[in-house]
Design a protein that fits this description.
The chain has 459 residues and is of the alpha/beta class. It folds into two domains: 2-133, Leucine Aminopeptidase, subunit E, domain 1, CATH 3.40.220.10; 137-457, Zn peptidases (Aminopeptidase). The chain has helices spanning 21-26, 30-39, 77-80, 96-108, 135-153, 161-174, 186-189, 193-199, 240-243, 251-265, 311-324, 338-344, 356-369, 403-412, 446-457; strands spanning 2-3, 11-16, 48-52, 58-64, 88-90, 127-128, 178-183, 207-213, 220-225, 227-231, 271-281, 293-295, 301-303, 329-334, 350-353, 374-375, 393-394, 421-425, 429-430, 440-441. The chain is elongated.
Length: 459
């Protein structure tokens, strides 16, 4: 992934914005100045110019940067630069945090999902890892993001609830974690009725995946991920354009597996638990119906207002289970509401929390890692939108207002409110191709979450 040391044949990259260019040029020889002038290099973001020596060999790369430092500043270069087996190095002094951002961005720019293509992606160019960057930390973060992207990008015919289980157990085996899976009608036997109700219409049985890792005496951190491997919308069927990318509806599960990989690889001093309710929301003669009343593990009853609000149903059982263990921190990830996307767009996931200090710390971690998140309030008055005439709650507000918040309020009813909790409503998808980010599955919020957990509990 990286070249550890630069050699005499490693090529330098001079990265600068348009403001820095005049100062840099002032210290160059006349030959370099003439080349820069002939190439019309101005230092605008993403601009690339190749300088050569008197023999026509590449001597250095000029690359334009934005005024605001970003993780993805260098992410386009692995695919743009000419091949050089000794790699490239950034010929600029950087702080440790900036060096690690640059290295991570470079790695993220090498990602391609070509598992189903006959013609595979060509060789990407390698970076000489900056001396002050922690290589292991950077690779750990990149592997986690790649895992999230791969799991989301894999089509449902290869990422059913059974396949998601295999991926989760593979991760557990890699780090010698304990695992348990409750499948099919056993969900009723062990009191996970909402998970069963949502997933029973699928040919592939619903299941609850449970992974535990770490010292029993360490602080408990529990991650819960929505694992709807495909969402038709159920009997309230989605329109075609709304169903097109619903392989990504297990994005919450992908996020917690990626985050779990980061935690275990870094050997953080936590007792980690990962819970994934894995289902397909399918249409069949035994599918749940609008108007049905479902039982839950907590004992609360839920009227099904809309079968397309299924994610919160499966999470209700998982959150109740998570609370029974009294963790020191509980985080759930879910591709839960379109309302979150309307509010924040695809790149900044909103989150909700029952703990003000925790919310502030999470926002700070988002800023520190440049993995931005933004808090929405758990405004208690909006819980009225979930009132039901026949059950304790209904699963959809139906008012067309505050959709993300009402979903968060619904989930909050199934946790022990004394447990510090974050609910992250992530999109899990890049709708547009950008440097370092192909169209498709994406990890939002896991770098911030890892930073939060590391700061809170240390190593």
């Amino acid at each position: 992934m990286f070249i550890n040391k630069k050699t005499k044949n490693s090529l330098p990259i001079q990265a600068m914005n348009h403001k820095d260019l005049p100062k840099w040029l002032k210290n160059q020889d006349d030959v370099t100045k003439k080349q820069v002038d002939s190439l019309d290099f101005t230092g605008i973001p993403g601009e690339l110019s190749i300088l050569t020596d008197d023999k026509g060999n590449i001597s250095q790369i000029l690359f334009g940067l934005s005024d605001n430092e970003d993780i993805y500043d260098f992410a386009s270069l692995p695919d743009l630069l000419p091949e050089n087996k000794d790699g490239y190095y950034i010929d600029t002094k950087m702080s440790k945090s900036r060096a690690e951002e640059v290295a991570l961005g470079w790695l993220l720019g090498t990602y391609r999902f070509d598992n189903y293509k006959s013609n595979k992606t060509g060789k990407m160019q390698e970076l000489v890892i900056p001396d002050n960057a922690n290589k292991d930390d950077v690779i750990n973060a990149a592997k986690a993001v790649f895992m999230v992207r791969d799991l989301i990008n894999t089509p449902t015919n290869d990422m059913s609830p059974a396949d998601l289980e295999k991926a989760a157990l593979k991760l557990a085996k890699e780090f010698n974690a304990k695992s348990c899976v409750v499948t099919g009608d056993d969900l009723l036997k062990y009191n996970y009725p909402s998970i069963h109700a949502v997933g029973r219409a699928s040919e592939t049985e619903p299941r609850l995946i449970d992974i535990v890792w770490g010292n029993e005496d360490a602080p408990k951190v529990t991650l819960i991920g929505k694992g709807v491997c495909f969402d038709t919308g159920g009997l309230n069927i989605k329109p075609g354009n709304g169903m097109r990318n619903m392989k990504k509806d297990m994005g919450g599960a992908a996020h917690v597996l990626g985050l779990a990989h980061m935690i275990m690889a870094a050997k953080l001093n936590v007792r980690l638990r990962v819970l994934i309710p894995a289902v397909e929301n399918s249409i069949s003669d035994n599918a749940m119906r609008p108007g049905d009343v479902l039982d839950t593990r907590k004992g609360l009853t839920i009227e099904v207002d809309n079968t397309d609000a299924e994610g919160r149903l499966i999470l209700s059982d998982a959150l109740t289970l998570a609370s029974e263990d009294k963790p020191d921190l509980m985080i759930d990830f879910a591709t839960l509401t379109g309302a979150a996307r309307v509010a924040m767009g695809p790149e900044i996931p909103p989150f909700m929390s029952n703990d003000k200090k925790l919310a502030q710390d999470f926002m700070k971690s988002g800023e520190d890692t440049k993995d931005l998140v933004w808090e929405l309030p758990l405004h208690a008055n909006y819980l009225k939108y979930l009132n039901s005439e026949v059950a304790d709650y209904k699963n959809s507000g139906g008012a067309g207002m505050a959709g993300a918040i009402t979903a968060g309020l619904f989930l909050q009813e199934f946790i022990d409110k004394k447990i510090p909790w974050l609910h992250i409503d992530t999109f899990g998808w890049n709708p547009d191709k950008k440097a370092g980010r192909t169209v498709g599955g994406e990890a939002y919020g896991i770098l911030a979450s890892f930073d939060l957990i590391k700061k809170k509990f240390g190593k």
